[in-house]
Structure formats: structure tokens, C-alpha cells
Amino acid sequence: MSAVEGSARTGSFTTPHGEVETPAFMPVGTLGTVKGVSPEELEELGASMVLANTYHLYLRPGYEIVRELGGLHDFMRWQGPILTDSGGFQVFSLSRTNEIRDEGVEFQSHIDGSRHFFTPEKVVEIQKALGADVVMAFDECPPGGVDRKAAVEANDRTLRWLERGLGRFRELEEEGGHPAQSLFPILQGNVYEDLRLQHLEDVLSLGDWNGMGIGGLSVGEAKEEMWRVLEALEGEIPQEIPRYLMGVGYPDDLLEAVARGCDMFDCVAPTRNARHATVWTLDEGQVNVKAARFARDPKPLDPGCDCYACRKFDRAYLRHLMVAGELLGLRLLSIHNLRFLVRLAEEARARIRDGSFGSWSRGWLERYRGARV
Amino acid sequence: MSAVEGSARTGSFTTPHGEVETPAFMPVGTLGTVKGVSPEELEELGASMVLANTYHLYLRPGYEIVRELGGLHDFMRWQGPILTDSGGFQVFSLSRTNEIRDEGVEFQSHIDGSRHFFTPEKVVEIQKALGADVVMAFDECPPGGVDRKAAVEANDRTLRWLERGLGRFRELEEEGGHPAQSLFPILQGNVYEDLRLQHLEDVLSLGDWNGMGIGGLSVGEAKEEMWRVLEALEGEIPQEIPRYLMGVGYPDDLLEAVARGCDMFDCVAPTRNARHATVWTLDEGQVNVKAARFARDPKPLDPGCDCYACRKFDRAYLRHLMVAGELLGLRLLSIHNLRFLVRLAEEARARIRDGSFGSWSRGWLERYRGARV
Number of A:B CB contacts under 8 A? Predict the structure, then answer.
């Protein structure tokens, strides 16, 4: 890490497709496209790394097709770093799961009901075929607040799966192919601090990791429980590797998590909210663009924002687009929300570097939250 | 006209927002946005003039709001020429029409059923408020092939409405406001050549027009009837003004109509087809991008096309986007289809200029049509 302020850190890590400065927000491109946004727009809004999803790309278009076409970078025409989620979360949350065994998970596609089988080895093979810069290990992710027994079982299985995934990852590395990819383990343990710490110790005993996913948070538990778990983990995860808090976050959650030592973030909210006409602004918090009060408003969405939508269009027009259900509106609001989070991470980096993160983020959160109706 | 080959012509006309070279295809931005496409993308794909619609903008967001925000050019951030359709066609085709009287048309909004009243004066006022470069007169447009009596009545009413619209247009011109807008009349007469010629004579007796809409075609009649009507009108409309064939067309129709002396075109097909995954290509005609044969196809949509989608992406990826229902796919296919027509008009201009339009368009149509399954 190049600078630290309290538990907040800034630094960078290297991937085969370039450097990623942290804290970083990674736009989610589930199916090999960040919904509504072109590769050039992603670059312009400052995205350094994007996410894609193993489960989704395995079902559509199929990882063999993506490999045949040169891997995911060539397929989606994005030459920056890509992290692929392992599909563990989706297998449990999206598909009809038929059976979880130690061997792997049998599941039915949420699209056509077809049957498939994922093993820890298989999801590594898929991600290697996609050419991901960061490959995530296969994990079992139970909902927030399951009982200890279920949490222990999920931890144990996730650990056994990690060992197998790592073995397959090393075999494939030796066989060649896309170079220098990293495998990140995913920490589980639900809301139980002792289970979290035990799992961390077990995971660390398996290898020297380049980075670490923190999973099983933001899955239904209370916010305070998430902060408590992050605070417990903060001092224990090796300081020199990036920590990826999976599925977080909203702007305020991102700042709270940076303050607790997290470095990488992803969330579908920027594009999903955009599709529901919801945008983030610093002085008015989260607002719905369809609100009648915007009908004649000649101001940009967020006067402090430098995104294409804010530089080019006014609220009255954006409201009109969303009320009329126009495609351009979805794109513009997505660009704004993505830029809002990417810029928040950029500013967090600068503030940590000059030692003003604590006071700045407190002020920012007050402004943002104070504005909420 | 700067060059003529047979009945095909090329030239240009001037608007307050710039020159338009003809033949020209005008992308349709019904609600003040060409569906899925940004102003920069419109410019990049070579659009010189875009369309918007009086009926739609009157209902949403309301023309007073657009005027307040500086007119349609400022509202949608498009500084090129804009033509607004009068809403005559939409009042009859989209809304629940309650009563057509000589005074005007009472109709119910297709959105919320609210009641409204359009007169020829009112639609001119709305279009002046929007700041259109070309204002279209209010017309009655019966479906293709109605009986003579209905066609005569529609002609007569359209003529009386034109006189009143022109009067209001001149009053507003004198009052100032947006300068040098043009009012185009709309020729009706359905499939009856003698009624078409009579209506033309009547329309010409009312004023010196800067251009002329040809309406009531491509509204259900056979293609041959459309060509017959255009051939009858061709020699009779003053040669020096542009002729706008409303609602046409598909690529082959555009070429056929250019050969019959038409200069300006609009059609929702490029963006609507894109939303149904249908694109135009020279060598394969109209194709559906979702076709299984594209799943591993590394070629651009149309190898001869210079649009952003064809320069940047391959068929396999575009198919994937459309199969998965991704927003980016709609945008890319829209850009391609729009560019296809804009470029076809560009090439027609060049070919008319060098005298090769006849042979070139025959060859083009054979290639394009030969490819159809």
C-alpha cells in the first residue's frame, strides 16, 4: 500500500491488462457488457477494471465460444483488466439448485431449465478460458444470518473447494495460455466473527494469495453486522494484498468500507438503479429523475459531476427521456451512476494520500445523507 | 438541383441550422431522441437532418416546456437541422380520434386518454415553438386505397387546412422568433393520379413553397401504386424544390424513390428493426442477428460498412448481446441501420453527380435483393 490513513488504504496492483489503483469501483458487466455502456464510455468514465460473471457467460454465449473468439477481452472489446466472479453466488441465488455435494453443485439454468454441474475445478477452467485477469474461487455463500452450523459447513466446503480450485489453477498455469492471472479466494463465515477469523486462517494456510475476496456480506444481514465483520478482519488480512468486498456498494457503503480497509468493490446498483430512473447526487442524495419537480429544471443531474450526461444534458431532458421510456435515458443515467462511484473511489484515493480521508468522508456522508428525504 | 440523371436529382437546401444535401435520409427522433443514439453518434453516422414529431412532443413533455428550455435543438442537444412532422398522421393513426371537423381534429391521447384539439393553426404554433427548421402543414391522411369520394374530401380539407396553416405561419414569422423556418405542404390524393395532380395544382396556387411533402403513400397501398403516383407527380412538382417522401423507407424503396425524383426520406425502420434484431447488409439483404449461424462469426455485420458497430464489433458478440437482451445491442444495431440508409443516400448523391446512378442502383438492388432468403 502506498498510503494509509487509519484503516483506509490506497495502493495499486498489477494485472496482465494493466495496473488497478485502489480503492477502486469495478463496473459490473455480467454478460460481457456493462448494461447500456460502450467500451469507450467505460474508459471515459474512468473504469480501470470491470467484472464479468462465470455463471452467466457459461450459459450464454458459452465459454467455448468466448475462448474461440479470443477470450473475453477481445469478445467485448475491453482491453483493461477483467475480474470474473466464480458463479458460486449465482448458482445459489439465481438457478434452481438441485443438489450441493462435496463434489460440486448440480443446478438448472434460470433461462431454460437445462441441467449443469459446476465443480471448483470447472469454474477455474471456465474463467481461464474466458481469460480473466482475476479468477475467483468457487464458494458456498449462505444468506446473511444463517445459524452457526450452516455457516461452519459452508466454510468447510468453501475451504475444500478452494484447495481443489487452486490445484486446477496451478495445473492450468503450467500448461500455459493466458499468463499471470491471479486466483482470489473468497472469505466466508457469515456474521460470526470467530468463524470469519478461523476461515481466514485456514485460507491463508493454503497459499500466498495476490488478493482476497470478502464474500457473504451484503446478503441480507444488518449493516452494523457487516461493519463489525469488516472491523474484525481488517487487522488480520495481510496488509499488502487488495481486499475485494464483493457486491458492495452504494456510495455511502463504499466510503464506510474504505474506512474499514476494503480496496475493491462491485455492485449492479449503478446500472440497475439507472433503469429505474434513480441516480445519485452529492447534495440531494439518491433521487428519482422522473420526479415532477425536474420537468423544467435546466441544471445538470449533479452539478459537481463531470460525466458525459452531466456535461451534456439537463434534468428536464433526462426526465423526459425516462418518462417516455427512451433508451438514451437508460444509457445516460447508467453513465452518471457509474461515474459517481468511480469518482468517489478516485477522490478517496487522493484523500487517503494527503491524509484528509477521515474528515472528508465524514463531510461527504453528512452532505449526501442529509439530503435524503 | 446541382445534378440530374433521368428523374434522379442531387442538390441541397438551406435551413437556419445548416445545409442539407439531397437525396437525404433523415433519422426519426419522434420524442426528441433518435432511439438509443446520442447526438454525437448521429453526427458521426452522417445524419444531416433529423425528424421529430409534433403529436408526440405536444403530449410529452409538452411544447411549452420545450420552448421554455430554448427550443428543440437546445433540448435534445442537436444543432443540425430538424424537421417536425405535423402530427396529422399520428392523430389519425395512433390516437383515438373523436371527431374530424373542418375546424380541426378532436382526439384522445394514446397515453392517458386525455382530450385535445388540433387545428391547422395550432400545429403550426407548436412547431414554431419547438423551433423546427422545417414545419409540416396539418393534413388528413386516409389509408391507402380508400374510395375516390373519401380521397377527394381529404384533399379538400387538407387544402383548406393548408391555407389556414400558411396564414398562421406568416403571422408568426412577422412576430419574429426563430428565423427563416420553412413550411412544407403535404400532397395527398391517395392512389388516384388525377386527384394527386389536381391537389398539386391547388397547393401550388397557394404559395411559393420551399419544399413539398408527399404524403399518403406507404400507408397500405401496393408498392406499384406508390411508384405510379410518384411517376405521375415527378414532372409536375417544381424541379427546384426538394420533395420529401414521407415515411419511406427501406433501403430498396429509397433507391426506387430516388430514381423517381424524390429527395428526402424518413422511416422508423432503422431503429425499430434494430430493436427486433434485424439489420440490413448489402450482400445478405435483411438478416436477423439472432440467427444461430452467427454464434461464432468473427466478421462485422456488413463488411462494407463503416459504422461504429461494424468497425468495432463482430457478429458473434452482437448476436450474444441481442440474444441476451442487452441494451448495447439495440444501440449498435440502430447505429448500423441508420448509417446504412444515410450512406446509401450519400452514395446515391455521388452516383447522380457522376452520371452512374442508373447502373449502380440496378446492381445494388440485384445484390441486395438476390441475397434475400
Answer: 94
